[in-house]
Amino acid sequence: MRAIQLTAPGTLEQVDVPTPTPGPGEVLLAMGAVGACHSDLHILDAPAGVFPTPMTLGHEIAGTVAEVGPGVTGWAPGDQAAVYGIIGCGRCRACLRGLENQCRTTPVGGIGLSRDGGLAEYVAVPASRLLPIGTLELVQAAPLTDAGLTPYHAIELSRPALRLGTHCVVIGIGGLGHMAVQILVATTAVHVIAVDTSPEALALAARLGAHHVVQAGPDAVEQIRTILGPPPDGADVVLDCVGADATLTTARSVVATGGHLRLVGLAGGTLPIRPTAEDIPPVPFEADTRMPFWGTRAELQEVIALAQAGVLRADVQTFPLEQAPEAYAKLRRGEIHGRAVIVP
Ligand SMILES: [Zn+2]
Ligand SMILES: [Zn+2]
């Protein structure tokens, strides 16, 4: 079968590999759709030894069961499913609480992270990772598993702060951010302020229900402050779906005293926290800062429910498998609006 593999650090190529055989407890999934995630670029850019090579990329996946391995019950060939990408140890304190995204044994273990992912014609995954999707299209189901789940989890962490009529700032209306806007609109009564450098992304945010859109730039903080009023008030929740130095500066400049700042994106920026800071915009007192990671299986089930209710829909741009390297190049150049989805 064809697969897109990380063959060496920085090298992504299409290769021919044997079709996997599902082991005990696993299913063989015929890949229907694979979201291209910024984390894949981090995997590509990582130095040797951090991720296994060769490894098929793709951790945001949905497909059709082709074969079930020994001992699998509840799934049969032809069933369609979304895949929860994390594989926790199942035994640690966090996993026992259902927080496999905080597993204390397996650092960032998962499909397309520590074992072959979905950028191939088939992938073998533990049946326990599958969630039914009903009649959802596979190209819609795949982005739910990360681009949908990650902001949903961040929003869940701030659920008590998302009071009616308060403000939530969403920075970065890309793969995650455009889902965050929809989740906020569908599940809260907050005013959503969307921030992005791209006018197309802001137009998308407005179409999806954002109440205010602000072009990122030198006067972005001032524009957001016009909506929120001066400190120590501000946004009750800020979701930084980019996570660069510039966006984190904006984030801490607009979050309210006692507000929630969620560093969701992995662009590698630094969030300096110290009690007094004259030289930089400080994180306000009592602010709750947190670095969410992906989400839980239970949350993914809820994200799928939102999509099935028709209130969460990824804006997708599709590519055939052989164009996966091109899709990642476009993602790196910032030319993807919404989510790039590869259709093997
Ligand atoms: Zn991802
Ligand atoms: Zn664990």
Automatic annotation (TrEMBL):
* Signal peptide start and end residues: none
Q: Which UniProt keywords apply?
A: Metal-binding, Oxidoreductase, Zinc
Question: Which cofactors does this gene product need?
Answer: Zn(2+)
Question: Coiled coil: which residue ranges?
Answer: none
Q: Taxonomically, which superkingdom? A: Bacteria
Q: Name one Pfam family in it.
A: ADH_N
Please state every residue range assigned to the domain named Enoyl reductase (ER): 10-342
Q: Which PANTHER family match?
A: D-ARABINOSE 1-DEHYDROGENASE (NADP(+)), L-THREONINE 3-DEHYDROGENASE
Family per record? Belongs to the zinc-containing alcohol dehydrogenase family.
Record-given protein name: Alcohol dehydrogenase catalytic domain-containing protein
Q: Which organism is it from?
A: Micromonospora echinofusca
